[in-house]
């Protein structure tokens, strides 16, 4: 009888220990995911700002000096974005890739006026690729892809594919802004823009498959593709007839629509985790 009591007591202790360990692990996981969500919010804002910086500086270097005021305001906002990312948690401050990113941003902000047009584009593209990489690295480290949203949301699509879509659009914005500012579109630029519009068009179809309510975004994407085609790709004449600022704003409107879908999904997942 006594031995049965001992066995029963040990069993209770074992089950209690397993429950407590499981609960503790779950709490740690949720905390990491909450921190990850904060980074996904602020890194998305930084990504958007750097993409804008690429477009505006490309237009400026192609001759549109009216864009300089917008660049200077944007650079102040980028510094705020960086501080917001740094404040989330210490993990990112110890990340070598993040140090490389912040140093790269400071160099581009300081030296863009004396940079060549092609190198300015290349350096921004490289920087943005590194930001997308650290988003993936952070999402994996903080178990973001383990989240199963209550809503019908594919988290990998939101935090990877959707951001890749913004980059195709961001590159098209930058190249088109430069073309509009310079007043001429080379054959190489036409090829690049045609390639990017194909990518954007395909991404728009995938967006509607994943997010059926995003019809307004699809309309903005269609307008952007039509604007690129009519102004830069289709005409036989070399002279585009849209201003750099006007084209930049059309492309930005389409990008903002994509980012709004990202923000909506992010908020839905944040609300879900907050209720757990």
Describe the overall structure.
Helix 3 runs antiparallel to helix 4 and helix 6 runs antiparallel to helix 7 (215-233). The protein has 276 residues and is an all-alpha fold. The protein is elongated and about 95 Å long. The protein has helices at 2-61, 68-88, 96-111, 117-141, 155-182, 187-210, 215-233, 244-274. The protein has one domain: Formate dehydrogenase/DMSO reductase fold.
Q: How many structural domains in the coordinates?
A: 1
Strand content: under 5%
- Can you tell me the CATH class? Mainly Alpha
Topology as H/E string? HHHHHHHH
User: Structural class of the secondary elements?
Assistant: mainly alpha
The strand count comes to 0
Proper CATH architecture = Up-down Bundle
Q: What is the residue-mean pLDDT, rounded to a whole number?
A: 86
Main pleated-sheet profile: none
In angstroms, what separates the terminal alpha carbons? Answer: 43 Å
CATH fold label: Formate dehydrogenase/DMSO reductase fold
Regions with little confidence, pLDDT below 50 for 5+ residues: none
Rg on CA atoms, Å: 23 Å
Number of helices: 8
- What's the shape? elongated
What's the arrangement of secondary structure elements?
Elements: H1 2-61, H2 68-88, H3 96-111, H4 117-141, H5 155-182, H6 187-210, H7 215-233, H8 244-274
